[in-house]
């Protein structure tokens, strides 16, 4: 059985880091397969016990995830994540442009991909891994990470208006028009889209769709008695068929097929919930 805790970042880091998560436990029977739909999150995850196996859509292909992985936003579904044995994972969940702002990596290089953090961030990763591994407490691990990240933020000037718009889009479940966001940022639509793509890794209209779909899916998982028609209406889909179309685009399945599969894997929410806001420390 797996157990996950979530805590928010400190106020100074909140524009860059959405939350921290830690998942611990054991899966001793057959491996648990977690579905991987398209999703908006950018992650830096540390695995201190058994690694995950990433199942590709290609038949029989499985890749061992790096012990410390940078995971970009995902525009497409992947076959699944295989979890087995002892699990001890600590994850930083970044705001939409947070990773780019802190580390300067063009996010298009990370879209639909995950990489060994050493190749992306650099040689300080092994020392950071050692420090985190030595502290099994969730709160202590957060303190270590924030001691590294806060000086990086302190050296920055005012937050970029495109980053502010991306954060609002994420917090608002994807329900903002690109034209309005561009106007607020005092940019043309083309300038805004170009800078958004570089900072977030996904075009803004598509990113909004992915956020909105994940919010709708989270809604249905939390409140299964609500019919899909109500879920669609509550998340500003044109109608239920609009939600069905996006579900097929981002998961490869209809809503009923996806829900049936997720109901067999309650741990899905442990890994990929988007809308459950972490409790304050």
- Count all strands and give the number: 8
Q: Regions with pLDDT < 50 over 5+ consecutive residues?
A: none
Shape: globular
**Averaged pLDDT:** 88
The total of helices stands at: 12
Helical amount: 40-55%
Q: Strand pairing plus helix content: what structural class?
A: alpha+beta
Radius of gyration: 18 Å
Largest pleated sheet? 8 strands, antiparallel
Multimeric organization = single chain
Strand proportion, as a percent range, falls in 15-25%
Structure description:
This protein is α+β, with helices and mostly antiparallel strands. The chain has helices at residues 98-103, 117-121, 125-133, 138-154, 161-171, 178-184, 189-200, 204-222, 228-234, 240-251, 255-263, 268-272, and strands spanning 2-8, 17-36, 42-47, 53-55, 62-64, 68-71, 78-94, 114-116. Strands 1, 2, 3, 4, 5, 6, 7 and 8 form an eight-stranded antiparallel beta sheet that branches. Helix 3 packs antiparallel against helix 4 (138-154), helix 6 packs across helix 7 (189-200) and helix 8 (204-222) packs across helix 9. The radius of gyration is 18 Å and the shape is globular. The protein starts with a strand and ends in a 9-residue tail after the last helix. The mean pLDDT is 88.
Concise description?
The chain has 281 residues and is an alpha+beta fold. The protein contains 12 helices and 8 strands.
